[in-house]
Write a structure and sequence with these properties.
Distance between the termini: 71 Å
CATH class of the largest domain: Alpha Beta
Number of domains: 2
Helix content: 40-55%
Strand order of the largest sheet: 2-1-3-4-5
Number of helices: 10
Strand content: 5-15%
CATH architecture of the largest domain: 3-Layer(aba) Sandwich
Structural class: alpha/beta
Shape: elongated
């Protein structure tokens, strides 16, 4: 336990967030979240509650056991729990405990783990509040991992914006970029046509016409 500067009194150890992963949540061999973020402890339900895992245990009872044993949240892929009256009634009485699930069901283990890791900082902010500040237990709904048209960016868009801003043609902007690339290669003592060879630009019809004209 560290001491507070100038006080001589030991400061409390930083809180370690404890997440319980529900049954059925993917368990990649050899992967430990703690190696990515030491402030988090992740436990699989079947590893800590073998008796409950073997029996047909209602979700509300899992909430109660997890809260009693010091877990901050249960991570589950079963969003249906949000609509179960008994589960939500029990959760409303568990101060400071949360259920983390997805707004839309995800059945891909890579997406599940990837998104959980991506949102862990935000989940931790919610869990970092004192239990009494968090109030009654609640549900954290993670958005579905999707890519729409606004998530895609075409390189041509940047070139076009640069050309418009400087009142140049896209060809002129491209020629400037190519000159900068070749200048860097030459300054670094590398062949100025290295990029062309790497990208096989000379094999493209448009490039062949440019090289023939040069």
């Amino acid at each position: 336990m560290a001491s507070k500067p100038g006080s001589g009194k030991p400061s409390p150890a930083p809180h370690r967030f404890r997440l319980l992963l529900d049954q059925g949540f993917p368990k990649p061999p050899g992967f430990r979240v703690e190696e990515v973020d030491r402030s988090i402890e992740v436990v699989h339900f079947g590893d800590s509650y073998r008796d409950l895992a073997r029996a047909r245990t209602p979700d509300w009872l899992i909430y109660a056991h997890a809260t009693r044993d010091g877990f901050d949240a249960l991570v589950t892929r079963d969003k249906a729990q949000v609509d179960q009256v008994v589960e939500m009634w029990v959760l409303s009485r568990l101060v400071g405990f949360s259920v983390v699930t997805w707004r839309r069901r995800v059945d891909d283990p890579i997406q599940e783990w990837g998104q959980l890791l991506a949102y862990l900082p935000e989940v931790k902010k919610r869990l970092a509040q004192r239990p009494e500040a968090r109030g009654a237990g609640g549900v954290i709904l993670l958005p579905a991992p999707t890519l729409d048209a606004s998530s895609m960016h075409r390189p041509h868009t940047t070139l076009q914006a640069e050309a418009s801003a400087r009142r140049l043609s896209i060809q002129q902007v491209g020629d400037e970029a190519a000159a900068e690339v070749r200048g860097w290669l030459s300054h670094a003592g590398r062949a100025s046509d290295e990029l062309d060879d790497l990208l096989d630009l000379r094999g493209r019809p448009s490039a062949q016409r440019r090289w023939q004209q040069s």
